[in-house]
Amino acid sequence: NRRILLAQRPNGKPRLEDFKLDEAPLPEPQDGQVLLKILYLSLDPYMRGRMSAGKSYAKPVGIGEVMEGGTVGQIIASRHPAFSPGDIVLSHSGWQSFAVADGASLRKLDPAAAPVSTALGVLGMPGFTAYAGLLTIGQPKPGETVVVAAASGAVGSAVGQIAKIVGARAVGIAGGAQKCAFVRDQLGFDAVVDHHTSDFPSQLRAACPQGVDVYFENVGGPVWDAVFPLLNDFARVPVCGLIAQYNDTGRPAGPDRLPHLMRDVLSRSLLIRGFIQREFADQRPAFYTQMAAWIASGQVQYREDVVDGLDAAPEAFIGLLEGRNFGKLVVHVADH
Ligand code: NDP
């Protein structure tokens, strides 16, 4: 069994030396368990947090342990009555080629309904994050302006398209001309701004002539600085992720801006609300039905960035934190 372990905790940006490739004997399923051959591994920004020992909402991966991650696998052997060899399931098996999993933790996938890799993206955790965070916290109304960064990515692409479906105006922020063209022309956002350009704040202002009613926060950093002055009274800010800060090793330079921020939260009656998607788990059944319908009708499009082979996962993950992925990043581990 080929596995990728956490070799050491990164300091700042992860490097290839922080990961270790390893071979271990195939695990044996016990009663109630199955043996899985992993087909796809999801690479997600939250994994950077799991590599660090600092306090977070989830336990870190231990040194020498298999890196954590969502996976799609095919059952090779089953000791659980609900699963048979050949079934394809969603599991959380991590960065490895084979894994044992409790049957109770699995969700069976229908390969005829959608490509199975989408269970890691638009029809999985990232798509659900967009759906629950935008509709429950953001609550966009027809005619309002919704802004989202990392707009070509797994979460952001769904946020903007759902905003359009409910009648809002979607403004995307993305890195580079190619991603911006995709967000505008393929995903159908009303406007898109490249955050790498030098006059990004003024371009964003021009793209939001009525101000911003919902800012779905995916990145933090300079993008937040550009959006914040544009927030309208009663704007809602679902704080989903802060990827621009995940590799930071200390506090940012410069004066403390918190008193300023709090003054504006008060005077503009802003709602800034963080969330972790599993908080909304009771909405998952509705999400699966709704998102499948939106994909079938063409109202939601998605793009995957598929990397070949488990060995390529560390390099691809490092790239995710630098914006090198273009679409939902998944590793193709094996054929089914
Ligand atoms: P993406 O597929 O969007 O990939 C990450 C993208 O982030 C990159 O492609 C890049 O896009 C952008 N990015 C990276 N670094 C920076 C930076 N310094 N400044 C601005 N943009 C940057 O990832 P996901 O859709 O999976 O995740 C998006 C966000 O959602 C992350 O912050 C993640 O942690 C969060 N998340 C939160 C969840 C929750 O429950 N709260 C659940 C799932 C995700 P570009 O080149 O266009 O800038």
Report on the structure:
There is one protein chain. This protein has 336 residues and is an alpha/beta fold. It folds into 2 domains: 2-121 and 303-332, Quinone Oxidoreductase, Chain A, domain 1; 125-281, Rossmann fold, CATH 3.40.50.720. It contains 9 helices and 15 strands. It has helices at 46-50, 125-138, 154-165, 177-186, 200-207, 221-227, 258-267, 284-296, 313-320, and strands at residues 2-6, 19-23, 33-42, 71-78, 88-91, 98-102, 107-108, 145-149, 169-174, 191-194, 212-216, 231-239, 271-274, 304-308, 328-332. Strands 3, 4, 5, 6, 7, 14 and 15 form a 7-stranded mixed beta sheet that branches. The protein has a 6-stranded parallel beta sheet with strand order 10-9-8-11-12-13, with helices on both faces. The chain has a two-stranded antiparallel sheet with strand order 1-2. Helix 2 (125-138) packs across helix 3, helix 2 crosses helix 8 and helix 5 packs across helix 6. The model has no long low-confidence stretch (mean pLDDT 97). It binds NADPH dihydro-nicotinamide-adenine-dinucleotide phosphate (NDP).
List the topology elements.
Layout lengths: L1 E5 L12 E5 L9 E10 L3 H5 L20 E8 L9 E4 L6 E5 L4 E2 L16 H14 L6 E5 L4 H12 L3 E6 L2 H10 L4 E4 L5 H8 L4 E5 L4 H7 L3 E9 L18 H10 L3 E4 L9 H13 L7 E5 L4 H8 L7 E5 L4
Parallel strand pairs: 8-9, 8-11, 9-10, 11-12, 12-13, 14-15
Antiparallel strand pairs: 1-2, 3-4, 3-6, 3-15, 4-5, 5-7
Helix pairs in contact: 2-3, 2-8, 5-6
The structure holds NADPH dihydro-nicotinamide-adenine-dinucleotide phosphate.
The site of NADPH dihydro-nicotinamide-adenine-dinucleotide phosphate (NDP) has 32 residues, from helix 2, helix 3 and helix 6.
